[in-house]
Amino acid sequence: MMRRKIVAGNWKMNNDINQGLELVKGLAKEIDAKNYNAEVVVSPSFVNLAGVVSELKDSKIGVAAQNMNENVSGAFTGEVSGSMLTAIGIEKVIIGHSERRAIYGETDALLAAKTDAALANNLEVIFCFGELLEERKSGNHFDVVTSQIEKGLFHLEASAFDKIVLAYEPVWAIGTGETASPEQAQEMHAHIRKVVDAKYGAAVADKLPILYGGSVKPSNAKEIFSKEDVDGGLIGGAALKVEDFMGIISAFE
Length: 253
Ligand code: PGA
Fold this sequence. Notes:
Layout: E1 6-10, H1 17-31, E2 39-43, H2 46-55, E3 62-65, H3 82-87, E4 92-95, H4 98-103, H5 108-120, E5 124-129, H6 133-137, H7 141-153, E6 164-168, H8 182-200, H9 202-207, E7 210-213, H10 218-225, E8 232-235, H11 242-249
Parallel strand pairs: 1-2, 1-8, 2-3, 3-4, 4-5, 5-6, 6-7, 7-8
The structure holds 2-phosphoglycolic acid.
The site of 2-phosphoglycolic acid (PGA) has 13 residues, from strand 8.
């Protein structure tokens, strides 16, 4: 089964507009000159999205927001709606990153509502989830991940999955330098695909891209991405330098 392959860089709260433009110029020069077998995505902060979209208007590189509000519009000071994103040419949004869950208290129910709002705006959703270290140590990681997916996404119709990409990001591997082994990633990704298959059938499960995130770097990307059910990665720290990010993308040369 040939699934979409995706390498997405999550910049988090890094890069002002000057740094962001410099980074995407460097990436575009390399990526647009060659045919990689993966889609490449960057996700700047809200304030830098429009500038980066404009810089990348002739590039293959896609741009995602890191978050959005679940409401259409109104008295929600400091928040950004889905239609504001599409109005500046954004086509994708990351929902449910572990930092949003842990630091900003975003619950499964809220993330389900954000996913609905994103899909209502025809945004593609990169939906993140993953277990804590304690949950893995106690052997609950499969149940935790199953529950996050069920609560966040299983109210959707099968057809909605054309606009969904999953990102398994074990919390203990994010920004820690510790990576899930390729075997641990494959084992979880196969589990996730089985859970989706049981609910929606093989037609949906087989074509659903499942990305791995958590300390992916040039030295480990190729081995992780070579696993059957790993369809690319969501990259934090190593997405902030042209050389590092290209080192990861070149796993799909
Ligand atoms: P990391 O972050 O690559 O720095 O571990 C991944 C993520 O948070 O998406």
